[in-house]
Amino acid sequence: MNRHQVQKQFGANAARYVSSKVHAQGASLDAMVRLAAPQPHWLALDVAPGGGHSALAIAQHVRLVAAVDITFPMLQAARQFTRQQGQENIFWVQGDGGRLPFEDDRFDLVTCRVALHHFPDQSGAIADWARCLKPGGYLVLVDNVGPEDQAANDYINAFEKRRDPSHGRVHSPTLLIHFIEDAGLTLLSADALRKPMLFHPWMERMSVPRNDRAVLTQMLWESAGAARAFLNPKGKDDGTTFDLQEGLFLARKPER
């Protein structure tokens, strides 16, 4: 996966992510704010804000939010959306969320919601977020996770990659915890949420071509074993649903 693919894929579909109910609502958005416990004097950083929903949710509770995204059309759409909601304490920065353009020990809170799986170096990105946290600052990471079983994990990633060529990789919760702790952060909590998805809107958000839709349908219904248990497909036609899972991780940078 390369950064140009991410810019191309998400730049072309920015408006869909602003209007997506999965991203605008969802249990993980409320959980992210609850875990962060943001304070009015805090300076927060939201990495890869997508449609702006996580930056908006945090900005309502802190002094200022920096929102960093590599895709300029996505930043434009998110900025327009949050300003329409009357939220003016967010400043928008085009930049690489894995190599942040900020000094060390800058932020009280770093959040990233459902984006890390697109990063080419996920461990390195988390380490850079830790660098930018103040001692005692918090990281709240929400991202799609895959099964612990390696074969099932490979199947889920192939399924996601067919839908979105910019998809990098979803990892197991165990491996993400390893990345967090390797970055020098102390894990405070880890949880997982099952996320039911409508199959056809999931494909439409990324403008999946007809041939690939047919392949995805086949992959969904022919999944087996741990992959089938993970995807949990149900229904038929326009009512088809399946499951993804999100991991929610809260960590803290040790005081010096």
Structure description:
- The chain has 256 residues and is an alpha/beta fold.
- The protein has one domain (3-252): Vaccinia Virus protein VP39 (Rossmann fold), CATH 3.40.50.150.
- The chain contains twelve helices and seven strands.
- A seven-stranded mixed β-sheet has the order 3-2-1-4-5-7-6.
- Strand 4 (107-113), helix 7 (122-132) and strand 5 (133-145) form a beta-alpha-beta unit.
- Helix 4 packs parallel to helix 5, helix 7 crosses helix 9 (173-182) and helix 8 (150-163) crosses helix 12.
- The N and C termini lie far apart (37 Å).
- Residues 6-14 and 16-23 have low confidence and may be disordered.
Short overview:
With 256 residues, this protein is of the alpha/beta class. The protein has helices at residues 3-12, 14-19, 21-24, 27-36, 53-59, 72-84, 122-132, 150-163, 173-182, 199-204, 210-222, 225-231, and strands at residues 43-47, 64-69, 90-94, 107-113, 133-145, 186-198, 241-252.
